[in-house]
Amino acid sequence: xxxxxTRKSIIKRYKITGxxxxxxxxxxxxxxxxxxxxxxxxxxxxxxxxxxxxKFMISYS
Length: 61
What we know:
By secondary structure, the protein is of the alpha+beta class. Helices cover 23% and strands 16% of the residues. It has a three-stranded antiparallel beta sheet with strand order 1-2-3. This is Large ribosomal subunit protein bL35c. Belongs to the bacterial ribosomal protein bL35 family.
């Protein structure tokens, strides 16, 4: 049986918790921040929890 390849892009973009949930950052927090409100920037800096959808892509990590 062939060994499955790990998707490196998933590992770079997501942080895996102890319960195998995936955390990612919001988009839109790098530039053009002057016109965004403080509450919007604060909300964008928090992480989003994703369900275990990418589990098969990182099978060996």
